[in-house]
Specification:
Blueprint lengths: L4 H18 L5 H18 L20 H15 L5 H21 L20 H29 L1
Helix pairs in contact: 2-4, 2-5, 3-4, 3-5
């Protein structure tokens, strides 16, 4: 049997559609397992784990859906490079980069296409303010990871 051009194209489109619909956006089990094994340990070594109360601030990952939270975490890891600040930034850079690589490795590329850009803002002056900005960014990331873990535990 010989397939003609239009029939062949239709067949290829159906196969591509079936493949793209069957592929999950992210492998949450792998993401959370690697987070607990590797990244959480790195954060604990820096004494930056625990539950933080950020009720006064806006929720960095307001959605109750796992894929929205993963996307928020990925965006925050990209925004982290915009923050500048000495030794603490270097220490936190490794776990944040690990988070970014973990998510980009376990999620489909087209899901993470949007690249966050650094906002044009005034330069933060003072060591204490820079340090607090970095710590608040890490606290937001940790809270999002905790929220992702609790939501994923409820769905499985």
């Amino acid at each position: 049997m010989c397939l003609t051009g239009p029939v062949l194209r239709s067949f290829v489109v159906v196969l591509l559609f079936a493949f793209s619909c069957g592929k999950r956006r992210c492998n949450y089990k792998e993401i959370l397992g690697s987070y607990r094994e590797i990244i959480l340990t790195e954060l604990q070594n820096l004494n930056l784990t625990g539950s933080f109360d950020i009720a006064k601030e806006r929720d960095p990952c307001p959605s109750g859906k796992a894929h929205h939270i993963v996307h928020s975490i990925y965006d925050m890891t990209q925004q982290f490079r915009c923050l500048r600040g000495g030794k603490l930034h270097r220490d936190l850079g490794k776990p944040v980069e690990s988070m970014k690589q973990l998510i980009s490795h376990n999620c489909s590329h087209d899901y993470l296409v949007k690249r966050a850009s650094c906002p044009a803002s005034q330069k933060t002056r003072g060591k204490k303010r820079k340090r607090m900005k970095l710590i608040n960014a890490i606290r937001a990331l940790i809270n999002c990871w905790q929220k992702l873990q609790s939501i994923y535990a409820l769905t499985t």
